[in-house]
Amino acid sequence: MSSQHDHPRGAKSRRQFLKLASGIALIPLVNISSVSAEDKKLIPLMESDPQAQALKYVATQEKAQSMPGYKAGSKCDNCLHFVAGTNGCNIFPGRSVDPDGWCAVWAPKPS
């Protein structure tokens, strides 16, 4: 019979390494996006934009409340991806978002 203890010792550490490496690989992409949002004149993101529709972006809290996955109080202004000062968003490079908006990629800012 096989058990969980039959796995080689390094299997868990390999899994952890792969998770860490894949996360680290994305860091340059996030930095590029935030620089782009700060350096360019941003174009307002429209709800009709294909990427906005794919990520369920809405510009108001009233619309957000009816979206699957929405949690009360979550909005662009308090999202990890929001770029204060320009209303930019690292998820939508080159676009500005409404601070009261919301999308399915919303993640809380660290406190």
Automatic annotation (TrEMBL):
One of its GO terms (biological process) is aerobic electron transport chain. It holds the Pfam family HIPIP. InterPro entries: High_potential_FeS_prot (IPR000170), HIPIP_sf (IPR036369), TAT_signal (IPR006311). The keyword Iron applies. Specific class of high-redox-potential 4Fe-4S ferredoxins. Functions in anaerobic electron transport in most purple and in some other photosynthetic bacteria and in at least one genus (Paracoccus) of halophilic, denitrifying bacteria. Belongs to the high-potential iron-sulfur protein (HiPIP) family. This is High-potential iron-sulfur protein.
